[in-house]
Design a protein that fits this description.
The protein is of the alpha/beta class. Helix content is 33%, strand content 23%. The chain has a domain at 45-56 and 89-103 and 180-267: Rossmann fold (3-Layer(aba) Sandwich). The protein has nine helices and ten strands. The strands form two sheets. A six-stranded mixed beta sheet has the order 6-7-8-3-9-10, sandwiched between helices. The protein is globular and about 50 Å long. The protein binds adenosine-5'-diphosphate (ADP) and magnesium ion. Magnesium ion (MG) binds next to α1.
Length: 272
């Protein structure tokens, strides 16, 4: 995927490229102004943890990145290429948009696996049918990905037979199968039994160690503190605060961030 992860101090400047650029994103649902002029850059190998209270617009922002929701204003750039529009402003057709979307891996809270396909088929589906790649090669890669998320022996099973943690690890393998430029996670562990959260976070932590570029919406504060290169805190549709995890968790600058973090004292969020 990306160059191996290095700390910001040692990473050569030349490898720091902007993978994702959000410029002035606004989104309304009817009268509800959900995203208000949100701008955010994500560099190659960066792990951005997106935090904020329920209803503040985190999922909508992720969905605007891959145009599952079309922003009402603002632009999304993926490796310099504008989502939804060609150079000169010509609107993209569905095929071009699908091609761009295929470079963004999405991992959902409720897994969204195909119930009628085996685990292996779930992972192979998009590389085969979207990228039209060779079946033998795709199969080999899918098996390797399953081994990587610790599920080599589950290849021929159907999702219904897996635990939530296993389903989510398949969801991650499926996203990785497209070799995306960036991975987006929308509360990947909040539908899980607490016992199963750790195994999923471990996989995401490994990806971070390998230099994957990721935006992760999570309520797992300890995980965010450990894995994030940068924390972005949103409230009511705006980015309120953004900074290194040590700074954000140790000395949040705004009252809103302080209040948000106070709810997590004791380790579990008061309200999810
Ligand atoms: N498809 C939709 N139609 C109408 N309103 C929506 C839709 N999706 C989200 N919203 C509203 O947008 C706001 C932000 O929601 P969301 O992005 O899901 O927040 P979060 O992920 O931070 O909990 C909420 O007020 C929610 O009700
Ligand atoms: Mg959400």
């Amino acid at each position: 995927m990306n160059a191996l992860h290095q700390s910001p101090d040692t990473a050569p400047v030349a490898t720091q490229t902007k993978v994702l650029q959000l410029q002035g994103i606004s989104k309304w649902f009817g009268d509800n102004h959900v995203l208000k002029d949100v701008s955010l850059d994500v560099m190659n190998g960066e792990v951005v943890c997106l935090l904020g209270p329920s209803g503040c617009g985190k999922s909508t922002l992720l969905r605007c990145i891959n145009w599952l929701e079309q922003p009402n204003a603002g632009s999304v750039f993926l490796n310099g290429q504008r989502m939804g529009a060609h150079k000169g402003g010509l609107k993209m057709n569905d095929a071009d948009l699908a091609q761009m979307r295929s470079r963004i891996g999405m991992v959902f809270q409720h897994f969204a696996l195909w119930p009628h396909l085996t685990v292996l088929q779930n992972i192979m589906q998009a590389p085969l049918h979207v990228l039209k790649r060779d079946a033998g090669e795709v199969r080999q890669e899918a098996l390797a990905l399953l081994a990587r998320v610790g599920l080599a022996e589950k290849a021929e099973m159907f999702p219904a037979r897996l635990s939530g943690g296993q389903k989510q690890r398949v969801g991650i393998a499926r996203a990785l199968a497209m070799k995306p430029d960036i991975l987006l996670f929308d509360e990947p562990t909040s539908a899980l039994d607490p016992m199963l959260v750790g195994e999923v976070l471990e996989v995401i932590r490994d990806l971070a160690g390998e230099g994957a570029t990721m935006v992760i919406v999570t309520h797992e504060m300890e995980f965010a503190r450990q894995v994030a290169s940068r924390v972005v805190f949103m409230d009511a549709g705006v980015v309120v605060e953004s900074g290194a995890p040590a700074q954000f968790f140790g000395a949040p600058q705004t009252q809103r961030a302080q209040q948000f973090l106070a709810r997590f004292h004791g380790g579990t969020p008061a309200a999810r």
